[in-house]
Amino acid sequence: MKKSNFGILFFFLLLLFSCSKDPVATCTDGIQNGTEIGIDCGGSCQACDILGCTNPAAHNYNPNATQNDGSCQTCTDGIQNGPETGVDCGGTCLPCTLGGCTNPNAHNFNPAATQDDGSCQTCDDGILNGDEQGVDCGGVLCDACPSLGDPGPAGGLIFYDKGSFSDGWRYLEYGIEIQGGDKQWGCRTSNNTSFLLGTGFNNTANVVNNYNTNNCSQSPDAFLVCSNLARNGFSDWYLPSVNELQELYPYRTQLGLGDKRYWSSSELDASIAYVVDYGGEANGVPYSYTWAKTPVNGQQGLSAVVAIRRF
Question: What is the Cα 258 distance to its own chain's centre?
Answer without folding.
Answer: 45
